[in-house]
Amino acid sequence: MSEQRADGDSRFGDEQSGRLTRRSMLARAAGGAVAASSAASILAACGSSSSSSNSSPSQTASTSSAAIGIGGIPIATKDHPVQLPIYSGNHGIASGLKPEKGPLIVFDWGTYLSPSVVKSFEQRYGVQVQLTTYSSINEAVKKLTTGAIAADVWVPVVEQLPNYVAAKLIQPINHSYLPNLANALPSFHSPWYDPGARYTIPNYVWTTGIAWRNDLIKIDPASMSNPWDVFWTATGDNGKIGLQNADQFDPLSLALLRRGITDFSSVTQAQVSTALSDLQQLVSKGAKLQYTAFQPLGTGTEVLSQAWNGDVILIPDYLPSGTPVKSISYWFPSNGRGSVNNDFWSIPKTSKNPVLAHMWMNHFLQEENAIQNYKDVGYQQPLRTLSLGGLKAAKVADPYILDLVWVTPEMAANGLPNPIPTAAQNKWFATAFATLSSGASS
Q1: Are residues 180 and 262 in the same domain?
Q2: Average pLDDT over residues 140-150
Q3: pLDDT of residue 126
Q4: Across residues 97-118, what is the average pLDDT?
Q5: Is the C-alpha dihedral spanning 152, 153, 154, 159 positive or negative?
């Protein structure tokens, strides 16, 4: 990918609405859950091994029975966090350093940075920001390990974080440069996948729930004893149901929740097989696999879809003229017991501007910048300083829509993230997803 200046031109906007759209999540389908063999190649490329650690993983919960992942790091779960080790020769930067002169190279999934927030960073620090994008995590890792890209800030995936740490692909964070981290929600200030935020700083948080056009299909998931069952019980929707394919686990999570399974980290092969069978029932009736739901729901080619809350913010831009915004509905459990995931910033070990990279991350944790970025992108920063009332006052989106998509602190704390899979689970997920995809239209 060629480097682009984040200066607010049309390359950063959606053609119809002018609003920045969420990155093409198809990227994650292509490589979001890297197989164990790929992770091993990362280590080989970086010349790392678990024996190079000068500290064993410090765990916040017992992991005596936890599976051991790449580099000898136990696989973390939300119930059993594992503190990531600091390796010899990879201690991060010292405190009190002056910011470099840049340019700052941001290595990201795509166009989901507010041009005005990027510009405010450039003006504040007198530097240029250059954005380089990638279409899969494998592509990103290859470019970083071969030196094809000298990135300063990178947005990878939670599922492979221990691999990046063991490979010394990313460096530890120096919190002295990040006073705004105090603004983060408690569950993100020290997240389960990185207790103490040693290597990551939180970025967007999103829910995955049920979106539908209430003017085209009459359903009410909230009134059902099992709301997730609506995909299987709704009538008159053949060929008009959407399922996510952004990550191989995404459609499986819907079927698992339907079966009452709320511990994604301990999913068994039998449960995956049952989930696949359930999803095949939907596919046989014409359900489509897709990575975003806002356009098909907006235009009415679909009436019901598994969707991110960020999709819901964009649906109004695609509604036929005269269609009220209240024709859109979205359901997610108020207690948060559904899929909740997030992105994070990290700093590659080879960064040439690591001080500036810290300041970049700190910039996006500032409330006014988080609000502006939300307005342009449609996704919420996990900050305790944000409020629903404040977002409405800032006219981030239609107040009715904001009520639907707001991620509460309870949702963030109680949510069920996609798991860091064991090698066996990764194989089950991949096989099930491939089987489902082969029988689905797109």
Answers
A1: no
A2: 93
A3: 97
A4: 91
A5: positive
DSSP 62-78: --TTSPB-GGGPBPP-S
CA distance 165 to 85: 8
DSSP class per residue in 373-417: HHHHH--B--BTT--HHHHHHTT-S-HHHHHHH---HHHHHH-BP
Helix (H, G, I), strand (E, B) or coil at 243: strand
Same-domain pairing of 18 and 126: yes
Does 244 lie in the same domain as 179?
Answer: no
Model confidence pLDDT, tens digit, residues 200-212: 999 999 999 999 9
CATH code of the domain containing 269: 3.40.190.10
pLDDT at 329: 98
Domain residue limits at 308: 207-339+419-438
User: Who contacts 42 (Cβ-Cβ below 8 Å, separation ≥6)?
Assistant: 34, 70, 141, 145, 163, 164, 167, 169
334-343: burial string, b at 16+ Cβ within 10 Å, e else:
eebebbbbbb
Structure tokens belonging to residue 262: 């709320």
In a domain, 319, yes or no: yes
Q: What pLDDT, in 10s, does the model give residues 218-230?
A: 999 999 999 999 9
The answer to whether position 198 is within a domain reads: yes
How many CA atoms lie less than 13 Å away from 422 in the CB half-sphere? 13
**Residue at 309 is within a domain:** yes
Give Cα separations from 428 to 35, 194, 256, 276, 418 (angstroms): 11, 25, 14, 10, 14
pLDDT band of residue 111 (cuts 50, 70, 90) is low
Structural domains in the chain (count) = 2
Q: How many angstroms separate the CA atoms of 223 and 355, rounded?
A: 51
> What value, to the nearest 5°, has the Cα angle with vertex 188 and ends 306 and 21?
45
Residue 69 contacts residue 285 (beta carbons within 8 Å): no
In a domain, 413, yes or no: no
Indicate if 46 and 87 belong to the same structural domain: yes
Q: Which two tokens stand for residue 272?
A: 């995956």
d(CA 305, CA 25): 16
Do 181 and 244 lie in a common domain? Answer: no
Q: Are 70 and 84 in contact (CB under 8 A)?
A: no
